[in-house]
Design a protein that fits this description.
alpha+beta; Heat Shock Protein 90; Ribosomal Protein S5, domain 2; Rossmann fold; 4 domains; 9-stranded mixed beta sheet; 6-stranded mixed beta sheet; 19% strand
């Protein structure tokens, strides 16, 4: 075949590209067509960073900016089904500009740095995106005895009420329901994610009270309270809390692996960090080295650190509209760099604290030297494990890999998923029906080792865990993670639940960041199949099974799936495709993961024995008389 064979196709493609191909979208059309540019991923609400929570965040951010300007000390959030209501007691949007402020993009007061000097929202986009992506949206302003209400549907104005008198306090009320046409029929708000969001607002804005359906969120000690709430175990020393003008820092060390940070700018939780967090990490290492006059490895100094850092800057620059990563290099236009500002504060305040608190300094030094010793031991074991693998020509035979991975230039890399299954039978069903582009399978041989109380060297001494770590590429942290979703897919029986717990405890102990950043899931598979000659229904609970038997009527048959290996490849395709059901594993509401692991995974703990005895229930067979 010669190049000329392709000429007609090229001509045809060129002829289709005309002036009619060029389109200009309104701002409303663009937001609804490309919502990801404004709120990140859509999602169903199962993940804390799904778009429906960004809509709430964008709304509350405006109320927070009012509080920061000294107007309004209370923000009320109401959740009723899929509808959210946010009422603040700030100055209230000027009535004559209410429609423009909630519907005309690039409209707002925050271009005036004197009005909102250190605001989060600067582009006049956020609330317009909320309006455009809501099936119903209402905004009401209360200002100096007057009020005005406007109503929208999918971003289009339905009704603009005339101003009227009111006795309500000044402020703004926003009420919206995300559009099912965009977020899907199954989306729902999870209260725990909203509670977590409100706590963070409270920690960063002392003196502010937030409520969710009447439940109050308020903080007296700022970032110190945040760390106290978020710590997964006992700290090695009391939380160090340092404050300065436009900067606040709190930190301690724990017994876990890795580093855990909470970074904020102007009250915005920058989950991906940015220049302010990089400056803190660097300054912390340099200050510790200078104090002890030893060139400790940075990894040893920061190992097991739990820290929170918050700064306020003029005209912050974020790397996207969702504001998850700070890109600003300066505190203010023409002012010091963030590296200089954060570095100077940390070096001065931490150095003073170290000199004044000898006991703290001694504990910190012991922690660093302990981490250094373990790192060197692990380096030797890691080398032996790799040599052993080479000599045995050991490849990752437990892994059926996919072609695209997290971090690839191909956008489908975000879909990459690793299913961890028990046994070759389940692995066979999954492998036969998976999407080879984005879905990989890792087969366990049986029940994995209980790692509670063991050190990280078990990963290199245990072949199965070594291969799992290699498959995930977690050895040096999340930066190299190969799969966006790690899914535990075990049977719905006692053994399957035990394996699930063993794997969760393994990740929780050695790779907690995998859980903290929302990468670990449980696969929800059907327990029953109910069918007749005309229809088949898959049921995920006893209630769904009962409903299916009634719907299908006489002549139906019921199959109970005891293990994943019993599900045929053809059936499995429907359970891991577009309609896949995943339950995220998260750390919400866990006051101490150390205590949790000790209770469930410890060696015959008295507390667990007492719990079993106190809750033991004997089922007696009922024999008909």
């Amino acid at each position: 075949m010669v190049a000329d064979d392709f000429q007609p196709e090229r001509i045809s493609m060129a002829s289709n590209y005309t002036e009619a191909s060029i389109k200009t979208l309104s701002s409303l059309e663009h937001i609804r067509l490309r919502p990801g540019m404004y709120i990140g991923r859509l999602g169903t609400g199962a993940h804390a960073e799904d778009g429906i929570y960004v809509l709430l965040k964008e709304t509350i951010d405006n109320s927070i900016d009012e509080f920061a300007m000294g107007a309004g000390k209370k923000i009320e959030v109401g959740l009723a089904g899929r509808t959210l209501r946010v009422r603040d007691y700030g100055r209230g949007i000027p009535l004559g500009k209410l429609v423009d402020c909630v519907s005309v993009i690039n409209t707002g007061a925050k271009y005036d740095s004197e009005t909102f000097q250190k605001s989060v929202g600067l582009n006049g986009v956020g609330q317009k995106a909320v309006n455009a992506l809501a099936v119903e949206y209402r905004a009401q302003a209360f200002r100096d005895g007057q009020t005005k209400l406007v109503e929208f549907a999918q971003g289009k104005l339905k009704k603009e009420h005339k101003p009227a008198k009111t006795e309500e306090r000044n402020g703004t009320l926003i009420e919206f329901t995300p559009d099912e046409a965009l977020f899907g029929r199954d989306f729902r708000f999870r209260a725990e994610f909203i509670e977590d969001m409100l706590w963070k607002y409270a920690f960063l804005n002392r003196g502010l009270t937030l409520t969710l359906n009447g439940q109050s969120f308020k903080s007296e000690h700022g970032l110190k309270d945040l760390l106290t709430k978020e710590l997964s175990g006992e700290p090695l020393y009391p939380i160090v809390h340092l404050e300065g003008e436009d900067i606040e820092v709190a930190f301690t060390h724990g017994a876990h692996y890795g580093e855990e940070y909470f970074a904020f700018v102007n009250g915005q939780h920058t989950t991906m960090g940015g220049t302010h967090l990089n400056a803190f990490r660097e300054a912390f290492v340099e200050t510790v080295r200078n104090f002890f006059k030893k060139d400790y490895d940075a990894a040893d100094i920061r190992q097991s650190i739990d820290a929170a850092v918050a700064v306020r800057v003029m005209e912050p620059v974020f790397e996207s509209q969702t504001k998850t990563k700070l890109g600003s290099t300066e505190v203010a236009p023409g002012g010091p760099t963030l590296r200089e500002f954060v570095g100077k504060f940390v070096q001065q305040s931490l150095d003073v604290y170290l000199h004044k608190n000898k006991e703290f300094a001694d504990v910190l030094r012991q922690k660093i030297e302990s981490s250094e010793l373990e790192r060197k031991e692990l380096a030797g074991i890691r080398g032996l494990a790799r040599d052993r693998a080479k000599k045995a020509s050991l490849h990752n035979k437990k892994l059926r890999d996919c072609r695209l991975h997290l971090g690839d230039k191909n956008p489908r890399g975000e879909e990459s998923t690793l299913f961890i299954v028990e046994g070759d039978s389940a692995a066979g069903s999954l492998t036969a029906t998976r999407d080879v582009q984005t879905q990989a399978v890792f087969a366990l041989k049986g029940k994995p080792l209980n790692t509670y109380g063991l050190t990280k060297k078990v990963i290199y001494e245990n072949e199965e865990f070594h291969l799992l770590q290699s498959a995930l590429n977690l050895e040096d942290g999340l930066d190299g993670l190969r799969y966006n979703r790690v899914v535990i897919a075990t049977d719905a029986d006692v053994d399957g639940m035990h394996i699930r717990l063993l794997l969760i405890s393994f990740f929780l102990q050695f790779f907690p960041d995998l859980i903290r950043h929302g990468h670990l899931f449980i696969l929800d598979t059907p327990l029953f199949r109910v069918r007749n000659k005309r229809e088949t229904r898959y049921c995920y609970s006893e209630e769904e099974k009962q409903a299916a038997t009634v719907a299908l009527g006489v002549g139906h048959e019921i199959t109970r799936f005891k293990g994943l290996g019993e599900i045929s490849a053809g059936e499995f395709k429907g359970f891991i495709g577009e309609n896949i059901r995943l339950d995220p594993v998260n750390l919400h509401h866990l006051c101490s993961s150390d205590e949790l692991l000790s209770f469930f995974m410890g060696k015959n703990t008295p507390e667990r024995q007492d719990f079993i005895i106190d809750n033991l229930r004997v089922e007696q067979d009922l024999v008909e008389a």
